Amino acid sequence: MSSDRPQPILEADNVYVEYRGTPPVKAVRGVSLALYPGEVVGLVGESGCGKSTMARVLTGLLKPNRGEVTYRGQPLRPLGLGRRPLAETGIQMVFQDPGSSLNPRRRVEAQIADGLRIAVRRGALGLADEGSGEHSDEASGERSGQRPNSGGPSTPAEWLVRVGMEADDARRYPRSFSGGQRQRIAAARALAARPDVLVADEPISALDASTQARVAYLMTTLAARQGTSLLFISHDLSVVRLIADRLVVMYAGRVVERGPTEQVWNDPRHPYTKSLLAAIPVPDGAGKLPAVGPAGEIYPDHEATR
Amino acid sequence: MTAVLRIEDLTLDIVSSEGTKPILRGVSLEVEKGSVQGLAGESGSGKTITGLSVIGLEPAGAKLTGRIWLEDIELVGLTGRRLGDIRGRRIGMVFQDPTASLHPQLTIGSQLTDHIRYHLRESKRAAQARALDALNRVGITASQRILSRYPHEFSGGQRQRIAIAIALACEPEVLIADEPTTALDVTVQAGVLALIRDLVDTLDLAVLFVTHDLGVMSAIADRVAIMRGGQVVEAGDRHQVFTDPQHPYTRALLASLPGAKGGINSRADLRRLDLSANAIEGDGL
């Protein structure tokens, strides 16, 4: 890690989360995770590994039992019942089920307008739009100051076009769209708020396979264009490895491996990461069964060094 | 090879007060002994309804025409006891969610033995022995103690193995597996897929394997059928369909998948994707 790296925009430091129960569930056990400006981080792992708990901690939806989250260098205050503090609307989320994160009784345009309004109130609309239309392969790290707008979408209809839909769709209600379209709308609403950070928790898992790569890449390019850091959480590595700059692998409440995507994908060091990668079925027609790990395997939970 | 299950020109309409909605439009398929016929498609393609129709579980208001043969028995129109004698006995079923298909308040032992005694009319003792065999076969080390446990005491992967044990306990010729690994983690899925393959090979089972996941399909199926809009648009040998797809829809589907030939395998491939929402629904297909 180079010393001239910018400060993280969002950072979790040694976070522990325990859910009440008999016995209590130790969902997260000492996880530290930093998100730098403009980068795409894939947080991967299987059910129960703690990745969604981390999403909730990083967005202030859940207060950790121990450890701290800092956003722009300030402690992130866990959300109460009230409105999110304006400064912290720079963190936005997209969830697995867009059907439940969109309000079924409001037109799509009104919901995207909510995002735009947040951006205006925070003074973030009119901020830099990279405008290149290309997803930069390196984390740009440029969005530190407030620069004049170079013409990003500023209306719900423009946002809909930006996410691959029609301007006319603005007048419709969420129910008239497919799952993939609804997830595009949810992404537009979140990104219209011009966040520094977008935390997307399994945003493509409920979508048809043919639309998964499209929606994931769309979210990545749009985030990159406006300098938003993206934390993309998924159990499915086959898409994540294509969009993420870095991968963080969680197992049993711990980070067991992290590193640049190509390194983790091509040369996994932790036995769990190895099993996870070997188990992915490939649609190549070869008729090869994915490798089965040893029965009852409990993997070491210390992080592999790289 | 001999086809145990033959679906011929199956058409299904849902008739309601709002009119007639076509769901299946002339689906034909054959499932052979010792072989897995994969049935893949996206949501709403009709793949699940096709599987359910075989066991007489088509939705209410469905009007079914066409023929489904289990060897020389015509299944369409079969009702009551005659259907009950085939469903669960000669055709086993496994569904996506074992928490829903297993009864939460009954021990797995009683679920297995009730099923076995209903179909095979065996003594309690014989049914128990058969239940233990069935569990051993799916990789769960069986004992009297295991039989007295409830579904919630098992992990998701083990529950799906138990559901498979129940489905196969009466030694059916055909297994209908509808997304049997979709709710499982990939590392657990790998084990269940290996188990199904092993059962096909050792028991000479004929499996109709329904899934949305073409990676899973590629791993388990011998023959593949791709459904779209209630029709089979392409069917053939697994290797042929994945490496030399003939139908434009199959080609479009594979072109949008990581890991597929001609699919999305690099960032450069991502950049050439048509990102509009109607990319795959687009015209010309």
Report on this model:
The complex is a heterodimer of chains A (306) and B (285). With 306 residues, chain A is of the alpha/beta class. Chain A has a single domain, classed as P-loop containing nucleotide triphosphate hydrolases (Rossmann fold), CATH 3.40.50. Helix content of chain A is 28%, strand content 20%. Chain A contains 9 helices and 10 strands. A 6-stranded mixed β-sheet of chain A has the order 6-7-8-3-9-10, sandwiched between helices. In chain A, α3 runs parallel beside α5. The radius of gyration of chain A is 19 Å and the shape is globular. The relative contact order of chain A is 0.17. In chain B, the strands form 2 sheets. In chain B, strands 6-7-8-3-9-10 form a 6-stranded mixed β-sheet, with helices on both faces. In chain B, strands 2-1-4-5 form a 4-stranded antiparallel β-sheet, with helices on one face. Chain B starts with a strand and ends in a 14-residue tail after the last helix. Chain B folds into 2 domains: 3-244, 3-Layer(aba) Sandwich (Rossmann fold), CATH 3.40.50; 245-285, no CATH class. Chain B has helices at 47-54, 80-86, 98-101, 108-120, 124-137, 144-147, 156-168, 186-203, 214-220, 238-243, 248-255, 267-271; strands at 3-16, 19-32, 35-41, 62-70, 73-74, 91-94, 174-178, 206-211, 223-228, 231-237. Helix content of chain B is 38%, strand content 26%. Chain B contains 12 helices and 10 strands. Chain B is of the alpha/beta class and 285 residues long.
